[in-house]
Design goal:
319 residues, mainly beta, 10-stranded antiparallel beta sheet, 23 strands, disordered N terminus
């Protein structure tokens, strides 16, 4: 899920549009910018490196946790663990325009990380309208049916990446059920209502309001109010009162992983800032985890001739 990037590795982009050969594997950082809204990304893992947004007074802050050096994303300073996935490989830059979009592509081979078949994957980050970022992930199996469930594991702190914990952030999750997990964090197969539990975020409230009922914080998949067949719907709202920044997240996926960076530990991040547990929120729209082992979950199996498409839109405003 995400990790976060040495100035010597930055690419100075002197053309408005840059096209890179599919065989090129240079690691770089690329900026999308429109007005005072900017997003930096790297083709190492196709990861979001920074997002700069104005607050209600026009002050710009980076609201994404991360590192100063790409090497730190590749080294031991991991913001999220797990086996090597698409966040640990070098993607190709297929298309890039500084004031509109960037598209990364990756070809996964048969048996990679234990998954069957060759898979062509792309992710496009695009600036749309005012202070909006869309993310479109696509995957096409080339030889065998395979499970596909791509997600973005960006660490958000709307007060600024260096502002401490997010427990006072106000959150609304448009979901009335969760898929609980066992002690190994594997879904049990149940789909349970959130009403009357600390997982109920149907009405916006502070993260910390029921934190005392959860000894390890939040890390759970929510079943969104979803009409199926790729229907586009609002998944979450996050508001930070001191800055006035508000983020809405829209998607076409049935699930949302809500994570309060419970296992961050102590990590040295951008500008020498020390990140600690609960210093960020992750909102990962997705298919239900472990769907392949629970037939009543929405299927994540994609066959040759079919295309997986995961759409997210982040809408940023200030109040």
């Amino acid at each position: 899920m995400a990790k976060i990037w040495e100035m010597c590795l930055f690419l100075l982009l002197v053309f408005s549009i840059v096209r890179v050969s599919e065989t090129r594997s240079t690691i770089g950082v690329y900026e999308l910018k429109r007005g005072n809204f900017s997003v930096k990304l790297t083709n190492y893992g196709a990861i979001v490196v920074s997002v700069f947004l104005p607050d209600r007074n026009g002050k710009l802050d980076d609201v994404v946790l991360g590192f100063d050096s790409i090497e730190d994303y590749k080294g031991n300073n991991m913001l999220h663990g797990g086996p090597k996935g698409f966040s640990d490989v070098v993607w190709q830059v297929e298309s890039y325009n500084t004031d509109s979009h960037i598209t990364f592509t990756y070809n996964s081979t048969n048996g990679e990380e234990g998954f069957p078949g060759d898979l062509h994957v792309s992710v496009t980050y695009m600036l749309i309208n005012t202070n909006q970022l869309s993310v479109i992930m696509r995957a096409t199996p080339l030889s065998k049916a395979t499970p596909v469930n791509l997600a973005s594991h960006t660490y958000w702190n709307l007060a600024g990446h260096n502002s401490g914990d997010v427990l006072s952030h106000q959150v609304q999750l448009l979901a009335d059920k969760i898929t609980p997990v066992d002690k190994e964090l594997i879904p049990t197969g149940d789909i349970l209502p959130v009403k009357g539990t600390p997982y109920d975020f149907l009405h916006i409230h502070e993260v910390k309001s029921k934190f005392h009922e959860l000894p390890n914080g939040y890390d759970i998949n929510y079943a969104l109010k979803y009409e199926g067949d790729g229907h586009f719907h609002k998944a979450a709202v996050v508001y930070e009162s001191k800055s006035g920044r508000k983020m809405e997240l829209w998607t076409n996926q049935p699930g949302l992983q809500f994570y309060t960076s419970n296992l961050m530990g102590t990590v040295k991040g951008k500008g020498g800032v020390t990140y600690n547990n609960y210093d960020a929120i992750c909102l990962e729209t997705q298919g239900f985890p472990d769907a392949v082992n629970h037939p009543h979950f929405p299927s994540q199996i994609v066959k040759p001739g079919e295309r997986y498409e995961h759409v997210m839109v982040y809408r940023f405003t200030v109040n």
